[in-house]
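This is your field. Pick holes in the following sequence-structure pair:
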Amino acid sequence: MYTPNDIKGEVSASIITCEPNKFMKVVHNRMPAIITPKDADRFLADEDAARQICEPLDDSIIMEIEKANI
């Protein structure tokens, strides 16, 4: 979904957020909207579909991994 823009030689990115699911709610009041490859074309082509796709990810898909102190 990224297309480079070489006009000014700048690199840019965006993060679309949505309401958090139960898992993320204990950490933050927003979470990244994760768009699956199967939804990418619909997301880019249709504004109403994009709004529906930008829903919190199902809690069962996310897992917590403890970070190691290095």
User: Anything to note?
Assistant: The CA atoms of residues 25 and 31 lie 8 Å apart. The mean pLDDT is 85. Residues 20-60 form one domain. Residues 47-53 form the longest helix (7 residues).
